[in-house]
Structure of Solute carrier family 35 member F6:
Amino acid sequence: MAWTNYQLFLAGLMLITGSINTLSAKWADMLSAKGCHDDPEHDFSHPFLQAVGMFLGEFCCLVVFHIWLCHDRRRPEPRINPGQRFNPLLFFPPAMCDMLATSIMYVALNMTSASSFQMLRGAVIIFTGLLSVAFLGRKLAVSQWIGILITILGLVIVGLADFATGHRDDSHKLSDVITGDLLIIMAQIVASVQMVLEEKFVYKHDVHPLRAVGTEGLFGFIVLSLLLIPMYFIYVGNFSNNPRHVLEDAIDAFCQIGHKPLIILALLGNTVSIAFFNFAGISVTKEISATTRMVLDSLRTLVIWVVSLALGWEQFQGLQVLGFLVLLLGTALYNGLHRPLLARIPWCAARMDLEESSPAERERLLNDGSVQGADT
C-alpha cells in the first residue's frame, strides 16, 4: 500500500527532527565563548540547562494539544478524544524519571560522540523488557529475549569501538568516553523505569499522547528550573567544565550566549525539534504503524552518525558500524519487525501468532514519545 503525501511528510518530519535533536545538543556542547567576569573562552558545558530546554519543548506539546482541542470543538463533529479526567500528579513520578535520565544523558553527551550516544540509548529495551516482566507480569516472546541478548552484544561492540577511538581521539579523553558510555547505560535504566510507570499508572487512564508528553514536560520544566538554583552553589570539582566547577552555572551559560548568540540557535534547535519529534512520532504511529515508527527511529541513528562523520565531529570506525547493525537486529527482533518476513514462509506462519498487538500494547507504543526522550 503506497503512502500518502501526508504520511511521507510525517515520516520525514520524524526522521529529520529526531536527528536534529541530538545533533543540535552536541553542536551546543562543541561551541565555546567567554563567560561572566571576563572568564576565558571555554566550552558551553551546561547539560542541565539544555535539559530544561528539552522539557520546554515537551511542554509545547501540551499547548499545541489545547489549541488543537479548542479548534476541534468548533467542528460540527469533533474528532479528537480528549480522554477521561485524571489527576495530573500521576505524571509526576515518570516526569522525575525523565528529568533524571535526560540530565544524565546530556552530561554524557559532553563526554562521548553523538553517534555512540544515540546507539547506546538502544539499551533501554533491555531494562524495559526485564522490568515489564518483573512488575507488569508481561511474558516476553522467545524472539524478544533473543533481541535483548543481541542488543547486549551490540552495546559491547559499540563500547569497544569507543574504547579504540578514545586512544587516538584528542577531542575526548579515554576516561571521559568510558564514563560517558556508562552514564548513558545508567540513564536507560531510569528511562525504562519511566516507561513502566507510564504504562502501569498513566496510559490506562486514556490520556491523549500529546497531553501526556506535555504534562510531563511541564513538571520537568518547573522542577529542573528550580533545581538550577541550588546547583549554582554545589561544587563538584573537575567533574564540571564550567569556570566555577559547580554542578550547573546557568548565569555563565547566559553570559556565553550573550558573547556568542550562535549558541541560542543550537539550544532552540533542541527545544523546537523535540516538540516536532514528539508530534511526528505520535502521528506516524496513528497514521501508519508503530512498526514504522521503530524503523524510523533506527534510521535516525544512522543519519546522526553520517552527519557527524560529514562534519568531522568524529572518526570513522568499522567496529561502530558492526555495533550499529547488531543493535538494529536486536531492536528489530524485540519489536517484532521480523514477523512480516516470517509470515511469508508457510512453515513459520503456522507456528507464529500473527495477530495484531493488543490495544493496550498499541497504546503503549503510541504513547512512547517522551524524550526518550529525548528521543532525548
Remarks:
- The first strand starts at residue 32 and ends at 33.
- Residues 5-33+43-367 form one domain.
- The chain has one domain: 5-33+43-367.
